[in-house]
Amino acid sequence: MKSIVSAILLTALSRVSAAPASKTTTAIGENPIVFDGRIPPLFRSEKFDSYDTSPYNAEYVLGQEPWSKVIHFPNVEDSLFDVPLNGKSLTVTINGKSIFAPGGNPQTGFRRSELLPGPNSGNDITTNGVTTHHFSLRTDNTRPLNYSHEYQPVFIETQDYSSHVWQIKIGTPFGEEWPLEDAKTIRLYSSSTSNGPYELFRTPFTTDEWHNFAIETDWVNNKISAYYSSGLSPLEQLFPRINNDASGKGQFHIGMLKLPTGPVGIDVTKEGYQSKRPNEGITYGGIFIEDTSAGSVTLQPSV
Ligand SMILES: *[C@@H]1O[C@H](CO)[C@@H](O)[C@H](O)[C@H]1NC(C)=O
């Protein structure tokens, strides 16, 4: 039975390989885009406050101020995948009012402002088959981070909120003391500290340039692969598909989540130290999710 299947596969593959295009140079739009969070040039920040006009969730994850106060449009060059539509970059900020209170229960240990794709309830088109989450990020030099703290700027939180499918972290992990050059680093982590490698990739969070990522999740076979570039260079694959638990499905968070500092063992959601008036931000661009079930990830806006 197996050999029949592979014979069929081989025939199919040889037909594919006769096509001139290489499998990894798909232009944006050739794969179905299951969520487009890129911001058109005339978009006003008030549009983030309403479900009718925002591609993102209008209510979560936010403190006491609406998105129109939390998001700023910085004057920087377009990120890799914003180039085709002259899309707007957006800076997601936190300040002293960025205290999320789910069910009226304030998370005083955290400062949070995180965008979630509108259609992403936790088990939906963005967590089906094989999907690839694209985003670019850069420092906001007018609202610098405090690298003594841990930040979780981008991650997929499992549907039951108990863990992550993958996670980006910047800064000093809670409970540790790191020199600045280690802390000022973007790190990609897998789903778990116990199954296979935990830290999958790191690169210095250099200022004044875009850091572009595409993280591919195979929701059926529990795999991850990742792509990266800086500036306007095409993405390059960092590692081929490896095992990673994606069974919890989940929601894509993109923005600012700042942990407190303090002794190990405290409840970080409620306790620990946060400065009184933080004014910090991270700038994003080129956010979209593509269905890459067909086998190719978009590495640049067009070929
Ligand atoms: C950065 O965070 C550390 C640890 O919480 C704190 O002691 C320090 O005052 C902060 N620095 C600034 C500039 O806020």
TrEMBL record:
Keyword set, alphabetical order: Signal
Species, as recorded: Dactylellina haptotyla (strain CBS 200.50)
Protein name: Glycoside hydrolase 131 catalytic N-terminal domain-containing protein
Extent of the signal sequence: 1-18
Cross-referenced PANTHER family: GH131_N DOMAIN-CONTAINING PROTEIN, GLYCOSIDE HYDROLASE 131 CATALYTIC N-TERMINAL DOMAIN-CONTAINING PROTEIN
Alphabetical list of InterPro entries matching this protein: GH131_N (IPR041524)
Domain Glycoside hydrolase 131 catalytic N-terminal, residue spans: 33-294
Pfam families: GH131_N (PF18271)
